[in-house]
Design goal:
alpha+beta; 5-stranded antiparallel sheet; globular
Length: 733
């Protein structure tokens, strides 16, 4: 059941079908679709690049293809007539520090044409290539062998409790410092020279904000909002770091957003692998020993343990002004604490700010922050103060395509969803009086919970502002308690030119610890749940009001094989909406699934191969272009393919449309350094777009040498710029 172009147009909000759209273009009439700006609608007649050949048969193939042989390449592959240039890679100098690891969100704030500040998120370290490559890239050694020897008899160690003079503690500190230095944010100054090449200018604003900023250099991060009152408490039910409202560092920095006033927002995501995620009813942290330090060939976790980092200070949105060399970040707690993936910024003069973000966990929610006061001038840097007061809401998606926003405040009723409506039949609720959370699996248990706790205020402790702060600190579990919809790992939240919201959900599969999505909302093309391959949702606020409390939504299961109703990719992640209103989508398949052999679709026991394992069919992660107007509207075209075991992230288009900034994250994540250009042959049970099965043979490199591309070179995450050889607009028709 191939994806229907008409269905996609309906999803976008267009009333006309293909024929009507074609006639509008021929008559030079303009029409409005959600991704479009008013002055460019209806101008696209052809895709501006020659799409790449995918290992999978696509509906957009110019000729019907059945690729029985396919060579996977350890390189960033871009279309004919395009090229890329590396402008920064792990280990390069930034200020008094270095370019970090696993670059993610990118933001280019221009100070002049083709000149400005590029802000980069550094999300996490991939243990296998990081440990293999550390000495090669940085020219120094880690005390890994000595620490592993000491930890032979234990899985993890509470390094925080070790005496300060203990040699093991010093060695663990060294490893964790280096790992956390490679996370956080970075700002570099760049410009395009007369030859059309981008170059760094190494200005005095170049700097790093790392996972340990403030630990030894007094570069603490600041914070605003109600959770500040929790941090300032002298005593509490849990662990206090004695730093008050000062914050040490930022890590887990995934996607983000850019404000019209020139600041950059960075989303702290998977903090739970470094510090404790659960909190007590007063918002204070569980002690550091709940996440101990662990190291082996495939893992370096609990990096915050040895420093006694308080878990409740991570999982926020961080705002940084790249132009201010003394700004090391502010965490705005009204935006909530959870596994932030991105932030969609809606700013309109005379209206409150509306910031949208998703919690990237299985069962995570969609949130909206609305400022108390309205915006006066969207470009005024004083707008940052609007983030210090307002309200955080969580989304409730009704099955009929309507929805509402639920305020996360003390008087909101406790009203969790029936676990039977959730894939996996489980929901986590705040655990009282112990703190943390408890899994609930039956409707009767939900009813008992509601009898015991009437409002969110019954679940949290403190005075009025402290109680509000505790709710924001525990936002995910508070949202579960008040009935917000469990979703399918929300990734990006992007605002279209008309003010509507687009959300990518990367996976509809459940997790035994976190739960799963609402199966009434997150269904595959044929109504199946769970559905692994991912979705894109379109949300329109009622009356197009950023402060509206109700909205309309539409969904399309875009991920999946074309023969089964998908567009030909799996697990959509970051979105980019270009000036013409067209959408660019990068994918985030798990590294261990990339090019995983699929010799048969049915196992020996007659059980079909799972959707998760079928992801090997899709090849490498990739970047896709989906026009939203013109004769190609609704089709997905393959623009770029990532290197081996890598992910493309942070697509950001320059103002003149001639440069696409792109991050290449975690090359070689599963197998590390590619040794002696090693490859292996694998078999895949592919299908044509008509559903006929055929066998494909692939040559798959084992590990990566990107971006140096020399035998045995260390793989390094990096940032590239993609341009057209003729210096024309990337997005021109």
């Amino acid at each position: 059941m191939p994806i229907k172009r008409r269905n996609f147009l309906i999803f976008l909000g267009a009333a006309a079908g293909t024929t009507a759209i074609g006639s509008l273009i021929k008559n030079n009439q303009k029409f409005s679709m959600p991704f479009q700006s008013a002055n460019t609608a209806g101008t696209l007649s052809n895709v501006s690049f020659k799409p790449l050949q995918s290992p999978m048969s696509l509906l957009t193939d110019i000729k019907s293809t059945t690729a029985t042989e396919f060579e996977v390449v350890d390189d960033l592959i871009v279309p004919e007539g395009f090229s890329y240039q590396v402008i920064g890679a792990w280990g390069d100098k930034i200020g008094d520090s270095r370019f970090g690891y696993n670059n993610d969100y990118l933001s280019f704030v221009e100070t002049a044409p083709n000149e400005g500040f590029l802000t980069i998120n550094f999300e996490y370290i991939s243990a296998i290539p990081w440990l293999q490559s550390y000495s090669k890239v940085l020219g120094k050694e880690l005390p890994k062998a000595a620490v592993e020897k000491e930890l032979q008899k234990t899985k993890g160690v509470n390094a925080f409790a070790l005496p300060e003079k203990n040699p093991l503690k010093a060695q663990i500190k060294t490893i964790c410092k280096e790992a956390l230095i490679d996370q956080g944010m970075g700002v570099i100054s760049i410009r395009k020279n007369a030859d059309g090449k981008w170059e760094r200018t190494f200005s005095n604003v170049d700097r790093r904000i790392t996972g340990i900023s403030g630990l030894e250099d007094d570069r603490y991060l600041a914070c605003t909002g109600p959770a500040k009152a929790v941090f300032q408490k002298k005593t509490g039910k849990g662990y206090m770091d004695k730093l008050g409202d000062r914050m040490i560092g930022t890590f887990g920095n995934c996607a983000g957003g850019t404000t019209p006033w020139g600041t950059v927002l960075s989303a702290e995501e998977n903090i739970q692998v470094q510090v404790p995620d659960p909190v007590y009813a007063d918002g204070t942290s569980f002690p550091p020993d709940r996440v101990t330090f662990t190291i082996d060939e495939e893992e370096v976790s609990g990096q915050g343990n040895v420093f006694g980092l308080a878990g409740n200070k991570y999982g926020w949105i961080v705002e940084v002004d790249p132009a201010n060399p003394k700004d090391f970040g502010t965490k705005h707690t009204w935006l909530g604490r959870y596994r932030h993936e991105a932030v969609g910024v809606r700013v309109e003069a005379g209206k409150p700010l509306a910031f949208y973000s998703g919690c990237d966990r299985r069962s995570g929610h969609i949130y909206k922050f609305v400022s108390r006061d309205p915006v006066s001038n969207p470009k005024d840097k004083a707008n940052s103060r609007l983030l210090s007061d307002g309200m955080l809401y969580a989304a409730k998606f009704n099955e009929d395509g309507t929805g509402r926003w639920i305020a996360l405040k003390p008087d909101t009723p406790v009203n969790p969803e029936d676990p039977s409506t959730i894939v996996g039949s489980m929901i986590n609720l705040p655990k009282r009086p112990d703190g943390g959370f408890t899994p609930v699996r039956t409707k009767s248990a939900i009813d008992q919970y509601k009898q015991k706790f009437k409002t969110l205020g019954d679940l949290y402790e403190g005075n009025a502002i402290e109680k509000q702060g505790a709710i924001l600190i525990d936002a995910h579990y508070a949202a579960n308690a008040c009935g917000a919809t469990c979703t399918a790992r929300p990734e990006d939240t992007e605002i279209a030119p008309d003010g509507s919201l687009y959300i990518s959900f990367t996976s509809g599969s459940p997790d035994s610890r976190d739960g799963g999505p609402d199966k009434r909302v997150f269904k595959g093309p044929n109504g199946e749940a769970p559905y692994e391959y991912g979705f894109v949702m379109h949300v329109v606020e009622d009356n197009n009001d950023p402060a509206a409390m109700t909205f309309q939504w539409k969904m399309m299961a875009m991920g999946g094989e074309p023969t089964a109703g998908g567009a030909g990719f799996s697990n959509p992640d970051n979105l980019l909406i270009d000036p013409d209103g067209h959408v660019w989508i990068v994918t985030d398949m798990s590294s261990d699934k990339l090019n995983k052999a699929v010799p048969k679709r049915i196992g020996k026991n007659g059980v079909p191969t799972s959707q998760s394992n079928l992801r090997g069919l899709f090849g490498n992660n990739s970047l896709w272009f989906v026009p939203t107007s013109g004769e190609n509207a609704g089709n997905a075209y393959l623009f770029a393919m990532a290197p081996i075991e890598a992910e493309l992230t942070g697509p950001f288009l320059s103002r003149d449309r001639q440069t696409l900034f792109l991050a290449v994250q975690h090359p070689g994540e599963s197998n590390g350094i590619r040794q002696n250009l090693k490859s292996e042959t694998r078999k895949y049970a592919m299908k044509t777009t008509d559903g006929d099965e055929f066998t494909q043979t692939r040559q798959v490199p084992i590990g990566s040498n990107f971006p140096d591309k020399k035998a045995n070179a260390a793989p390094r995450p990096c940032v590239v710029v993609v341009t057209k050889s003729d210096r024309q607009n990337i997005t021109s028709a």
